[in-house]
Write a structure and sequence with these properties.
mainly alpha, 4 helices, 42% helix, 0% strand, globular
């Protein structure tokens, strides 16, 4: 899951690059919104390659579809942002 923040024109261009690039597949846009200030000013991306079995055994592993479904049932607004906090 990735949250993109910044100037709307730059973010739209970056998102298009992500969607059409070879490094990502099955990209799903969960939400678009405008906020008064950035939420994650001191945060940066990281990537760890691992096999599926190890990944699923890690603490905090989840199925995003289950999270979104639960939030929908509970009427939680701003699902991606709530999840990331």
């Amino acid at each position: 899951m990735q949250l993109l923040e910044g100037d709307e024109r730059i973010i739209r261009k970056l998102f298009n690059k992500i969607v059409t690039g070879e490094r990502h597949e099955s990209v799903v846009l969960l939400q678009i919104g405008k906020y008064e200030q950035r939420c994650f000013t001191d945060w940066s991306m990281g990537l760890e390659q691992t096999d599926r079995e190890l990944y699923q055994s890690l603490s905090g592993h989840f199925d995003l579809n289950d999270v979104v479904s639960k939030c929908d049932r509970l009427g939680v607004a701003d699902v991606p942002l709530q999840f990331l906090h």
